[in-house]
Structures are given as C-alpha cells and as structure tokens.
Amino acid sequence: MNEMKSLVSKIFENLLYQNYEYLDTFTMSELISCTSAGSLTIYSTIGITTFNFISQLFLLIGCFLIFFYHLVLFKNTHHIYKIVFCLILLLLLFIIILINIFYGSYAFNLNRQYRRFFSSIFGFTFDIFSI
Asked: Which residues cross the membrane (predicted)?
C-alpha cells in the first residue's frame, strides 16, 4: 500500500511542479489508472459501505442495551407491554443483524474484487482497509 501512496503522491507532486520528464516515464494506462475517478469510486463505495456497517452495529448495541434495560426494569410485572416491547426489540435486533451481515459481506466482496483488480495492474496487493 505504501508503494501506491508514494506513486500517487509523486505523480501529483510532479504535476504540481510541472515536471514533465518524470511524467513521460509513465504510460498512458498507468497515469489513467492512478489518477482516474475509479479510485475515488472505490474509496467512496467501500467507505460508505463500511460506515453503514458500523452505524448498524451501533444500532444493534443500542437495541441490546434497551432490551436488557427493559427486562430488568419490568422484571416484577407481567404486563402485555413488556412482552410486546421485547418482541419488537427482538424483531429490530434480527433485522439489524441481517443488515450487518449484508453490509459486511458486501464490503468484503468489494474489497476482494478491488484487491484483485489493483494487484493485476500494479503488481502488489491493494487493501482498502489498510489505509
């Protein structure tokens, strides 16, 4: 990953200082692959997916806390409210777990796909989560 960072930083540094001799050493496909919007798409897609996964994880933790709080709070009563509320929370927990499984597998597959793509272009492993 450090090779990728140094390559991109060298390219933009030489673009900034108008060093065309350095840029002539690259082929057109290398310049396009390093500076294209595809890399921004990769970062944004996997970043948004990871953000959604983490936010759903916090919702899951919050539902667990509320569920156990109400179990302790209403332990002496047998109201229908307690049963319905706990069933709703269990349903929410189940939905959030399914969403987390979806986002986690989606982010994992995207990361694996782009690792293969960039390793075939640059010859080294590219991992979005190591940045």
From this structure: 53-74, 80-106
11 falls within a domain: no
DSSP SS3 for 22: helix
∠ CA 16-122-15, nearest 5°, is 5
Task: Count the domains in the chain.
Answer: 1
Inside any domain, residue 26: no
Residue written as token pair 């960039």: 118
Domain assignment present for residue 22? The answer is no
The parent domain of residue 73 ranges over 36-130
Per-residue pLDDT of the chain (131 residues; tens, 9 = 90+): 566 666 666 665 655 556 666 666 766 666 666 555 556 566 666 677 777 778 777 887 887 777 777 777 766 666 666 677 777 777 887 887 888 788 777 777 777 777 676 666 555 555 555 54
Q: Give CA 113 to chain center in angstroms.
A: 13
Tell me the C-alpha distance between 66 and 59, whole Å: 10
Alpha-carbon radius of gyration of the chain: 24
In a domain? residue 17: no
